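Worked example

This section walks through a single chain of length 335. The input is the sequence exactly as stored; nothing has been trimmed or padded.
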Amino acid sequence: MTKAVAARSARIGAARPGTARTGAGRPPRRAPALLRPARFDDLGLRRALSDRLLPSLVAAMAFLAALALAGTAGASALGRQWQEGAGSVLTVQVTEPAGAAADGGGTRLDRVLALLRGTPGIASARALDAGELEALLRPWLGTGAGRIALPLPAVVDVRLSDPALDAGRLAVRVEAAAPGTLLESHDRWMRRLAVLARSLQACAGLALAVVAFVAVAVVAVAVRAGLATRRGAIEIVHGLGATDGYIAGRFARRATLLAATGAGIGAVAAVPVLLGLAGLAAPFTGQAEDVGAAELVHALPLALWLSLPSLPAAAAAIGWITAQGTVRRWLRRLP
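Given that input, the structure is written out below as tokens.
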């Protein structure tokens, strides 16, 4: 095998354009070039790096990465929507709503409604009817909530046009108009939603980091296995003058192609799953439960659709960098 490689190397060197003349005064003649296929695999990388195992593993990593990206985008969108909804709503509870107001201007409920509707920054104020109150109490009191003979406060649903409205000052004014009235601004729930959204985003980011680390490990192990399989051929080529950059580049190109292919397969396979998750999350975003495929496509955040095509590019970068580093370290240890 060594003699054959040496002979082939000598033929390659002889085939380079030279300056030899066939006779005095004659122009130089180009020596016949050694022909070889354009995609000649001189290191046997198609056998060293299988086109089945590595793409399959990278496809699984890309699938998990797509789910992690969906978790990040979904947590951000839901958290923002929930915070905006909670920040634009106030709840006012008026005890003894049918009682006379403190200033004699009608009932306590009428006085509170008039005050709320006349306050700048409030879009609407509406008292819930008996059916709506029963629906609110049903999770705690059961189906017989409407038959309980207890004095219930009136609940006023307030919609804000200005989320920056000073709820504390409004609570003082409502208390003065109808003593004992409670105002809830949902600040505590907004803070909890913000913490929950940030926690979900952090978990998704950690999952992405773990997936990237596993992808690096998978490519490194596959490349080292390929180096061990083709050790003899690599040592011969390296001994004949092939540089570390040439050998590392051949491995890196092969690993890049396989990693990008696997990541593309994983990203495509994740799309139906993401659409299914969007359908499950539709009721929480104010959409109907039986939305169509077109609505589900639009329901997914734009940032997610833009990030899915980046998975093959990221996998290709991981494959190239990891293969280059692994092969160069291996070559430096050769005797």
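What to look for: The longest helix spans residues 187-229.
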